[in-house]
Every structure is written in C-alpha cells, then in structure tokens.
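Q: I'm writing up a methods section and want to include an example of the input and output format. Could you take the sequence below and give the corresponding predicted structure tokens, formatted cleanly so I can copy it straight into the document?
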Amino acid sequence: MQTNNHQVFDYDTVLDARFGAPGTSSRIEAEEKAYAFYTGQIIGDARKKAKISQAELARRIGSDRSYISRVESGQTEPKVSTFYRIMNALGCRIELSMSL
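A: Here is the clean output for your methods example:
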C-alpha cells in the first residue's frame, strides 16, 4: 500500500496539471465526465437502497436494462426529465434550491 507520507497537496494544482486550467476545453470535458459518473452513482445507490434490479427500474421508466447500466456507469448522462422519472420510480424526492 502506498502512502503520501502525510504530505499536504493543493488539489486545485493537481487538477490543473492533470486536466488543464478551469475553463479550458479539457477541464470542462473532465468535469462533465465527473458529473456523469456522480449522477450514475447517485442513481445506482438509490436503486440498491430501493432493492430493485436495473431491469425493474428500466421497466418502471419505459427503458431497457442496458440504458440503466450505462447511466450507472457514467457512460450516459440522462436528460433532466429522465433523471426525474428515474428518481420518482425509485421513490426519491428531488429538492432544488438557489443560493444568491
């Protein structure tokens, strides 16, 4: 197992070095992939908590199991309307708020 010897890193610098500065096309692409992955994790966790299969979730929203699999793995990001249908099918409540 590797350790970092308790060194402190500035992760903004690490992200900049790996994906480019904020606002660059490479950084935007990396952030979009990260959001897709995170969205998939939220859906997968909610589905497992609801104790239903990918096939059952797909049936509830009128889709197929492979679509749910792609969403959960971050390969596909659902449209907002589909995200709402998925979360509703899982019995989840979505709350939006604005910070000013």
